[in-house]
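EI: anyone free to look at a 220-residue chain?
SC: sure, send it
EI:
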Amino acid sequence: MNTQEKWHEMHSLKRHQPRYPSSDLVAFVLKNFKTNDQILDLGCGGGRHVKFLAENDFIAYGVDYSKNGIKATQELLDLHKLKAELKIASVDDIPYEDEKFDGVICYGVLYYNPIELIEKAAKEIHRVLKKDGVAYIVVRSTKDYRYVNNEKISKYEVLVNENDISKSAFKENGMKMYFFDKDEVKRVFSNFNIKEINRIESSYQNDSIYDSHYCIVLKK
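SC: here you go
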């Protein structure tokens, strides 16, 4: 089963459809955008961030390559009587015209792809942003336990093999995953003005393992 098929299957299950938007993304969006700005959630999954955008008077768009993800997002919007434009597409081929969006968010999506596709996605995000538009990108860092504890395919890529069913990485078994240090962030997003590279970490099992993410703020 390839990554797209695996996410299609996972997005059909309620337990893989988080209900609430991430608090860091909420703070970023409310600080950086104004009512009726057009914002794209690239890799929208089950729709939690599209819902947040729509209910806070932004013009919301969602793209995901999982049909089940788009279906779940539409059902969530319908439940709350909200509207957004949704399309099935890959992150490296965004189905919108140049300079359409005031903002793009891409939360925990890119690292499930090989570097060639990530690099194309970075160019696509740049293309669809308006001049002075802003993107908020969340990727996993090389401090993350999935990187530390798994077989390295290359400097930044691993094959996930997690035996502990209690860890979130268990559901990612068999996936190739791409991780970032700051140098790789700067290389991949070199066509942007990189405004901030921040880290969010959570520790588990008596501070022995870490979920570690970079939250990247980009301006066109």
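EI: The chain is about 30% helix and 30% strand.
SC: 👍
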